[in-house]
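[User]
Um, tokens okay?
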Amino acid sequence: MRRVVGDIVIASVTAVALCSGAWLLHGGAGTQAPPQPSAAEARPGSADPRSAPALPPSPPDRVRIPSIRVDAPLMGLGLTTSGSLDVPPAAKKNLAGWYESGTTPGETGTAIVAGHVDNAEGPAVFYDLGAVRRGATIEVDRRDGGVAVFTVDAVEVYDARDFPDEKVYGAAARPELRVITCGGEYSRATGYRGNVVVFAHLTGSR
């Protein structure tokens, strides 16, 4: 199944390349898997009813999630030949990416940010994404000099076979953000079998 984001079609296997679990595969029996979201963080409804006015389009340069100590540059991501979202180079563990053919963070619609959970050397940029809580803040530095401030509404984990394309990538009437990495059950044969998705909406700017 495929889902249109803006004028571009993304395959439902979007984050499969994020999910090899190379560190867990080579790290030995003592290696701990990344945190997974609890059911309490996946409750429907906004964590913050406020909604800020949409910002004009501007590419993002950096993403910060203070509650899990993320402060990372953003690179533009396109699509692979199979139609899935490309991913940042695995070797650059503190680098995330945004889908540059879609909505820019802060404008009306659904903006997409993705990054690795780990690489062969250890935890990567979104290793702790599953520990984010409803109500947490995500800040995105924009190339126009402004900062888009989002509030987390929910944090969910999905098996890759049941990934809800419409819910994650569907059009939004207000500025929204999705932050995606891999997660869920882990297999040494196939890596992570799902994705952690953070849902957030714009509540401020500066």
Notes: The longest strand covers residues 191-205.
